[in-house]
Amino acid sequence: MSNLLARILTAIIAGAIAIAAIVYSTYGLMFFCAVVSLAGLWEFYQVSVAQKALRLAGMGLGALIWGGVLLAALNGEAVDTYWRVSLLAIPLFGMLTLFQPSEHQPVATMGSLVLGLVYCYLPLLLFFDLSTTAPEYDFRLPLGILMLTWILDIGAYFAGRFLGKNPLFKRISPKKTWEGAIGGGLFCLGLGLVFQFSTWGHSVPHINWIVIASIIAVFSQYGDLVESMIKRSVDLKDSGSILPGHGGMLDRFDGTYLSIPLIYLYLSFI
Which helix H or strand E contains 174, and what residues bound it? Predict the structure, then answer.
């Protein structure tokens, strides 16, 4: 099977599962966010933390966070558990690193453990939080953000493949081009316009989809480059192999790690 065919089939299957979960209910969205963040966290720890015990401790804390979020949601409470439970990371990771006899770079290890939660977890928690702050859950906000990210990736892939000539950031990702970046951005802005001036956009009041599309068009591509930088620092092509044709979970959702916090900030102001 060619890489392009595997990429398309994986996108169709994984996309259908993600859409079904998000449309189903707020708990479907929570399941989606928990799976993406846990899988991404494991991949991040695989390349940044050498000790298996520390990786498992980080994953355990990550699972504890989502458990707290689930309990808060079931009890009808504000989903702010992350901010409290995440404070455990500093003493817990410090103590566990202290008891690693072969540890030679404790600062780097502790930094990687905490960074994994901030880099892989925080965006998905914010994504879940911004989608559940309204009195009634509306799947169009989270799904719209994902669709804008997906169309950006699709547009950038094909524009880069057929028109790409000028490297975007050769030191980090030699295959990415300015033509691909601009093409993907135009596709993203085009879909943002459709959302803004359709019933889809009117269903979520006070939200300017063109602004959201602009944030994604720029910062999602920077997120891709940041993840490429991380992989290049450890000589990896893909962060994993869970998604055939796409690589790992980090490879698939790297753009959202930078764009979602900024979208959350924008929506908080309006």
Answer: strand 173-177
C-alpha angle with apex 201: 198 to 204, nearest 5 degrees?
Answer: 150
Cβ contact 71:63 at 8 Å: no
| Residue 1, pLDDT score | 47
Burial 80-118 (b: 16+ CB within 10 A, else e): ebbeebbeebeeebeebbeeeeebeeeeebbebbbebbe
Sorted by where each begins, the domain ranges of the chain are: 26-135, 137-270
The identity of residue 241, as a single letter, is S
- DSSP annotation of 117 reads I
The Cα–Cα gap between 121 and 38 comes to 8
**Separation CA 40–CA 116 (nearest Å):** 9
Q: What angle in degrees, to the nearest 10, is found between the helix axes of 249-269 and 221-233?
A: 140
Q: Looking at per-residue confidence, does 75 or 96 come out higher?
A: 96
The rounded Cα 157 to chain-centroid distance in angstroms is 18
Q: Is 133 left (phi over 0), alpha (psi -120 to 50) or beta?
A: alpha
Place of tokens 């003493």: 91
The pair phi, psi for residue 167, each rounded to 5°, is -60, 140
Cα–Cα dist 107/117, whole Å: 16
Q: Which helix (H) or strand (E) holds 111?
A: helix 106-116
Distance CA 135, CA 115 (A): 33
Here the tokens at position 12 are 């169709």
Reported as a single tens digit per residue, the pLDDT across 137-186 is 888 889 999 999 999 999 998 998 888 889 888 888 888 889 999 999 99
What is the pLDDT at residue 253?
87
Here the tokens at position 32 are 């989606």
Return the amino acid letter for 11.
A
